[in-house]
Amino acid sequence: MNAIERRGIADYFFDALLYLFMACVFIIMVYPFIYIFVYSVSDISKIKFPLLIWPAGVNFDSYRVILGNRNTLNAAFISLARCVAGPLSMLLVSSMGGYAISRKDLMFGKAIRMYLLFSMYVSAGLIPGYLLIRNLGLMNTFMVYVIPGMANIFNMILIKAYITNIPGELEESVLIDGGTEITAYFRVILPLTLPINAFVVLMAIIGQWNSYFDVSLYNGNTRELHTLSYSLYVNLTAAQNLSLERIRQLLEEGQAVRINNQSLNMALTVVTMVPIMCVYPLLQKYFVSGLMIGAVKM
């Protein structure tokens, strides 16, 4: 009898329990996203049950209000801008830093690597960081989203660990042909480190898109520099939204109001989630390989 024929009732029972458990996990993880979207497109006057599986009516007024608001569009632009400028500048500085500390002939290389590793675990704290940003003149500016994250020590270490696995003969061939180390970096090292570069860029994009604390700390009083994540944070914590004035206008015009604060927050949540959900699958294949590199020692 082969392995398939030897399967007994206990094996099928275990498989059934396993499938049931995975189905429950899938529902628990996916249903909140479904609920947010369904509630955002539902007519609040037709919602009778708290657990929604499909829309109670079809109503896109929440999205019209959110996307029709100038502050939301400006916040989306700022979020996209920092997701481009921040990761690219971080990649340039951190990858070149990782290339530098990977050199065996780097003077005091081990001491420099240990110093960088120590600074990753021990920081000055929030108040010294705030004072530094203020003294540098980055308060209420867009560059506060870019400059502080350019030199990322963790990403430097990951890139350094990846570069050490690249044969040194490739770099030496460029130097023999009359090239410099900068030429070797851009022509050899940078193309060969595409998987780890894609991984750190993906992590940086997610961090930049979801970041809201730095907005509240440095640009809270500058509305034109708010991001989508910060707008969502303000709406959820302060029980305010972008449509109070719009709702009052509809009431004054005698029109039926089919949205409320919660539906607007749901719509803003969907608008905030969709872009990052579209970016992640494009770089997913580099995610696992990037995580495995973290096990390599300094």
Features of the shown structure:
single chain; 298 residues; mainly alpha; MetI-like fold; 0% strand
Provide an overview of this structure.
The chain is an all-alpha fold and 298 residues long. The chain has a single domain (66-298), classed as MetI-like (MetI-like fold, Orthogonal Bundle), CATH 1.10.3720.10. It is 67% helix and 0% strand. It has 14 helices and no strands. The protein has helices at residues 9-40, 61-67, 70-101, 109-121, 126-135, 153-163, 168-176, 181-192, 194-210, 213-218, 228-238, 244-252, 261-283, 287-293. The chain is globular, with a radius of gyration of 25 Å. The termini are far apart.
Topology:
Blueprint: H1 9-40, H2 61-67, H3 70-101, H4 109-121, H5 126-135, H6 153-163, H7 168-176, H8 181-192, H9 194-210, H10 213-218, H11 228-238, H12 244-252, H13 261-283, H14 287-293
Helix/strand order: HHHHHHHHHHHHHH
Mean pLDDT: 80
Relevant CATH superfamily? MetI-like
Q: How much strand content do the residues show? A: under 5%
The gross shape turns out to be globular
The CATH architecture classification is Orthogonal Bundle
User: How widely separated are the two ends?
Assistant: 52 Å
Question: Strand count, sense and closure of the main sheet?
Answer: none
- Counting DSSP E segments of at least 2 residues, the number of strands comes to 0
Using the coordinates above, name the CATH class: Mainly Alpha
Specify the helix fraction band.
55-70%
CATH topology heading? MetI-like fold
Radius of gyration: 25 Å
Multimerization status: single chain
> In total, how many domains does the architecture comprise?
1
- Low-confidence segments, ≥5 residues, pLDDT <50? none
Query: How many H/I helical runs?
Result: 14
User: What class, by secondary structure content?
Assistant: mainly alpha
